[in-house]
Amino acid sequence: MKNIVIAVDGPAGAGKSTISKIVAERLNIEYIDTGAMYRAITLKIIRKGIGLEDIDSIKKLLNETHIDFINGRIYLDEEDVSEDIRKIEVSSKVSDVAAMPFVRGKLVELQRNMASLKSVIMDGRDIGTNVLKDANIKIFLTASVDERAKRRYKEMIEKGNDVTFEDICRDIENRDRIDSTREVNPLKKADDAVEIDTTSKSIDDVVNEIISIVKKVG
Ligand code: C5P
Questions:
Q1: Three-class secondary structure of residue 45 per DSSP
Q2: Which residues belong to any copy of the Cytidylate kinase domain (predicted)?
Q3: Above 0.90 for ipTM, yes or no?
Q4: CATH code assigned at 163
Q5: pLDDT digits (tens, 9 = 90+) for 164-206
Q6: What residues form DSSP beta bridges with 30?
């Protein structure tokens, strides 16, 4: 059977990771969360106390960093950082880090390697437009800002984070702005992507919609 490659893009809180994980399980393929990779680099920069203007130190840090996914968890230099990367301190800086061309260059290369030779569903901001331009299936998930902020807020509170709804709205709007206006590979729907607005749809509905697209193509 030929490999299936599914690219899922969209703004923060549109449901990309929740939906991609379920689709991966249903199709028995690998899920790769590229946002987690940008978050892991950002976490390391914060922990080391490096300022975002200190380009030389960030370049050096990139060369000394190892990122891996094992059983759905993300490892930064062999440490499981799956929870730490979700903190608001990381969210508030990640889009500035992800706008740096040399950071993208390094992570995109890693992402392409991870996706070669196997069937994957990969989510992010530039997967259909850049990382996996030849993907068989491209999905662009959207939802209203209010709905996305509500989902993210619920998720953060359930995980015990001390955040307000306003913090989350500000974070989402700020990241949307930086992600869609940066010079290198901004967040944008690929011309050949299918757009799904998830605002008033259940997770199951969206998963089923994607699976039926996969079945049509495959
Ligand atoms: O997907 P998630 O919201 O966790 O991504 C965190 C951030 O990483 C995004 O807001 C964006 O700045 C960056 N990102 C990116 N390109 C990707 C995936 C994520 O620039 N492919």
A1: helix
A2: 6-215
A3: yes
A4: 3.40.50.300
A5: 999 999 999 999 999 999 999 999 999 999 999 999 999 999 9
A6: 120
Asked if residue 216 belongs to a domain, the reply is: no
Q: If you measure from the C-alpha of residue 90 to the centroid of ligand 1, how many angstroms do you get, rounded to a whole number?
A: 11
Of 9, 11, 7, residue with least CA distance to 148: 11
User: CA separation (Å) from 209 to 5, 141, 194, 205?
Assistant: 16, 12, 10, 6
Name which residue sits closest to atom 21 of ligand 1, judged by CA.
Answer: 124
Q: How many domains does the chain have?
A: 1
CB neighbours of 31 closer than 8 A, spacing ≥ 6? 20, 21, 23, 24, 72, 120, 121, 122, 123
Q: Where would I find the H helices in the chain?
A: 16-27, 34-47, 55-63, 88-98, 101-115, 145-158, 165-181, 203-217
Instruction: Tell whether 42 is covered by a domain.
Output: yes
Burial (CB count within 10 angstroms: exposed 0-12, middle 13-18, buried 19+), residue 155: middle
pTM score: 0.96
**128 marked ligand binding residue:** no
Tell me which residue has its CA closest to atom 8 in ligand 1.
Answer: 35
* Domain enclosing residue 116, as ranges: 5-199
The closest residue, in CA terms, to atom 16 on ligand 1 is: 125
49 is in an annotated binding site: no
Residue with tokens 């490892």: 75
